User: Which sequence fits this backbone?
């Protein structure tokens, strides 16, 4: 089906497939799509495209129960004095913070005492808010580990690590620096600001991180949350490479919040920051565990490849936390927001962007455009998934064996629906490779029965009806959509332009040809079913050839089977 075997996979077809077309083999069992016998691909699905263990790490996992909400309301009366005390404690921070902010562009040494003061006051603030902090492990010095990486990042309360490590510099969003009071305090620790709107921000941030990490103690220690966004702590998502590009030793730090009621998790789907702050203040106490793991000194391989460095540190932290790793990243959050704007469930936009973009060489903008198309197809369905009916309606074709075959190739987990992740993978692996100039030329010649260089609606309808086995099929709407010039004849350019923007049809066409060859291979020269075919599991489970797909007889698929004696590899090349 257009898939190549990945590392560790057996690319050889199973024995039962040798008597069949290389593109299709018997799957056995019944399909969720109209009772058609399922078929397996001789090449296994890429294991690396398996759906993640944690489908959505950006949703709050446990909403408050009715009893918890009642307790929060009763405790809210005690919140006001706590808030007043927090503001009172924050006032002394402002003068010292403003003084340190003036030293922003150069490393400072004479104001380290102010850092210690900030750390003590910050610890006091967390104590007043009811935090009970348990520290494990040894905190590495600046020379031992110029960079501290903390995960999982799930809340603004994760800032407790700054107080424990002596207020190191952090990498923070540029918007945070403009926040009243908090922005002034944040500026005092000489942060590296990141602007997601500035195209040069990433390059400048990496350069600044590298400069400070290699300063041999001239700049303060760096605290970085390599995930780059907040999750629900159910897994560790992709680590950004910024902390690992300098190739210096890093100290991994783990965060845990072992509380019965979760009032700290701040994700893209869940409570707002204000609601979480108030609910946390209403708790008698909030437990947090901070564990400092041994310093990870990079090998030469890790120094030369920050991706390997980041992955190994992440795996070490995931093992200690006993959670899985996934390839989600901040770009998935952007797709989630876009999915919500398109009236899809927000989680419909999750595709594990890091994995998809690397393996399929896709840019975010391209995936975002595909989300628009997917939303248009899935708009009539519930749950943000495409069923066989929506698939057929989008292609303006009836449900047929050929269409079911193509649908099954998209439906990677066999649940009878196509989610956005499967749609993106299907377009990239199945449709786009099939949508070549050669395929388009072959298809046009097949439709152009009289070889006059144009395709009439009658010629177009004849092949479509034959391919789908629906003699009375009305294809006028599809023909008009392709006929951009409204000449009632399709030129090759019109045909090609439509095919290039609708790659699913290319795979539908090649699937049709594969099924033709498969059914042709089951007949001998006189059109009688061969003895081998009778014993084939496909023949036993599939619809009889005479009742399935009429085989077109033309210059592309001539009458008779001239390839009966060809090898499997020859048919695969065809």
Assistant:
């Amino acid at each position: 089906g257009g898939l190549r075997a990945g590392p560790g996979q057996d690319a050889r077809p199973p024995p039962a497939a040798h008597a069949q077309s290389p593109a299709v083999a018997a799957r056995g069992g019944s399909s969720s799509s109209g009772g058609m016998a399922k078929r397996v691909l001789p090449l296994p699905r890429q294991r690396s495209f398996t759906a993640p263990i944690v489908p959505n790490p950006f949703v709050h996992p446990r909403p408050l129960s009715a009893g918890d909400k009642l307790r929060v309301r009763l405790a809210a009366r005690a919140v006001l004095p706590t808030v007043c005390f927090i503001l009172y404690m924050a006032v002394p921070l402002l003068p010292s913070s403003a003084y340190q902010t003036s030293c922003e562009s150069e490393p400072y040494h004479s104001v380290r005492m102010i850092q210690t003061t900030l750390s003590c006051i910050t610890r006091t603030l967390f104590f007043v808010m009811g935090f009970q902090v348990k520290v494990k492990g040894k905190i590495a010095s600046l020379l031992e580990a110029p960079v501290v990486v903390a995960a999982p990042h799930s809340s603004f309360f994760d800032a407790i690590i700054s107080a424990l490590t002596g207020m190191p510099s952090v990498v923070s969003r540029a918007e945070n620096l403009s926040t009243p009071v908090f922005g002034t305090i944040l500026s005092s620790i000489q942060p590296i600001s990141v602007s997601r709107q500035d195209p040069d921000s990433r390059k400048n941030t990496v350069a600044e991180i590298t400069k400070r990490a290699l300063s041999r103690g001239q700049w303060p220690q760096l605290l970085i949350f390599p995930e780059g966004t907040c999750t629900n702590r159910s897994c560790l998502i992709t680590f950004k490479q910024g902390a690992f590009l300098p190739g210096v030793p890093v100290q991994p730090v783990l965060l845990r919040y072992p509380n019965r009621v979760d009032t700290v998790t701040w994700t893209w789907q869940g409570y707002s920051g204000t609601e979480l702050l108030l609910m946390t203040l209403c708790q008698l106490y909030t437990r947090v565990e901070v564990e400092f793991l041994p310093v990870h000194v990079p090998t030469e391989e890790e120094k030369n490849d920050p991706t390997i460095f980041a992955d190994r540190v992440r795996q070490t932290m995931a093992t200690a936390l006993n959670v899985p790793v996934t390839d989600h990243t901040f770009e998935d959050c952007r797709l989630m927001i876009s999915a919500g704007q398109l009236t899809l469930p927000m989680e419909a936009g999750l595709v594990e962007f890091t994995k998809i973009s690397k393996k399929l060489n896709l840019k975010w903008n391209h995936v975002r455009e595909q989300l628009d198309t997917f939303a248009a197809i899935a708009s009539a369905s519930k749950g943000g998934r495409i069923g066989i009916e929506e698939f057929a309606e989008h292609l303006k074709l009836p449900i047929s064996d050929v269409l079911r075959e193509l649908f099954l190739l998209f439906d990677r987990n066999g649940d009878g629906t196509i989610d956005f992740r499967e749609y993106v993978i299907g377009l990239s692996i199945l449709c786009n490779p099939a949508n070549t100039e050669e395929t388009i030329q072959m298809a046009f010649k097949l439709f152009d029965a009289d070889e006059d260089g144009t395709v009439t609606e009658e010629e177009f309808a004849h092949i479509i009806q034959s391919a789908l086995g629906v003699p009375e099929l009305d294809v006028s709407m599809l023909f008009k959509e392709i006929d951009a010039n409204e000449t009632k004849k399709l030129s090759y350019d019109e045909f090609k332009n439509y095919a290039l923007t609708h790659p699913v049809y290319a795979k539908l066409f090649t699937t049709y040809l594969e099924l033709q060859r498969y059914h042709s291979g089951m007949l001998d020269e006189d059109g009688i079913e061969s003895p081998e075919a009778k014993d084939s599991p496909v023949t036993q489970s599939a619809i009889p050839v005479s009742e399935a797909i009429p085989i077109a007889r033309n210059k592309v698929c001539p009458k008779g089977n001239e390839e009966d004696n060809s090898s499997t590899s020859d048919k695969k090349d065809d």
The two ends are 13 Å apart (CA to CA).
